[in-house]
UniProtKB/TrEMBL annotation:
Domain Topo IA-type catalytic, chain residue ranges per copy: 1-103
Coiled coil: none
Protein name: DNA topoisomerase
Record InterPro entries: Topo_IA (IPR000380), Topo_IA_cen (IPR013497), Topo_IA_cen_sub1 (IPR013824), Topo_IA_core_domain (IPR023405)
């Protein structure tokens, strides 16, 4: 998918246009993560597959937004700005006019289309994001930051908690967001299968996935 994003719109570009595809190398992975967080794509082993909501979304989006041709046109416009044959204001005005046209043409989708989405546009707010302070909302597969520029996520199928006999449900997510840790008396050892007592501490590296540490009570 990353390779496809890198080539997006290349067929529409002229030979003298620098081919950068969709986004930059630093943002392409983040774009994919955001699609997963929003419930439009899911991981199945090593594959990324569209969810039902993702399939519905692609049917309701305007063709202009879905086409790689727009990427090519914007890339060429940026090249023209670099060559001083077009101004930044002209480029931004073109984007504004396009958005106004699309909004006027597609003021909303039918109730029938809305009902095809299984997820909610905005889930229940369960706390504040430790990275940016925005609301954290509940999705179908995760608890995600409502700020689109932030990638903070708590996954409902978190592998670490599952390995300890626990799950990232709404109650657990709220506690991690408010206190940063949860004390359990009935964690399950992966090696012995026995229960033990420990505190699970959430550690946020500031980017990527959060991590968890085990803190054992002093004897």
């Amino acid at each position: 998918m990353l390779s496809a994003m890198e080539r997006a719109g290349n067929e529409e570009l002229t030979e003298d246009t620098e081919k950068k595809g969709l986004g930059t190398p630093a943002t392409r992975a983040a774009i994919i993560e955001k699609l997963i967080q929003s419930g439009f794509v899911k991981r199945e082993k090593k594959n990324l597959v569209p969810t039902d909501d993702g399939n519905v979304l692609i049917t309701v989006l305007p063709d202009e937004i879905k086409s790689p041709k727009m990427t090519a046109e914007w890339e060429m416009a940026l090249n023209h700005i670099a060559q001083n044959t077009e101004t930044a204001d002209e480029f931004l005005n073109g984007i504004t006019e396009l958005m106004q046209e699309l909004v006027a043409r597609y003021q909303g989708i039918s109730e029938e289309k809305k009902n095809q989405f299984q997820g909610k546009a905005k889930g229940e707010v369960i706390g504040k994001c430790p990275r940016c302070g925005a609301d954290v909302q509940e999705g179908k597969v995760n608890f995600y930051c409502s700020d689109r520029n932030c990638t903070f996520t708590l996954w409902k199928n978190d592998k670490f908690l599952a390995s300890q006999g626990k799950k990232m449900d709404k109650t657990a997510a709220k506690k991690f967001l408010s206190k940063g840790k949860i004390h359990y008396k009935d964690l399950v050892s992966r090696k012995t299968g026995r229960q033990y007592e420990a505190t699970v501490e959430m550690v946020d590296p500031g980017e990527g996935n959060v991590q968890f540490n085990l803190i054992f009570p002093q004897r």
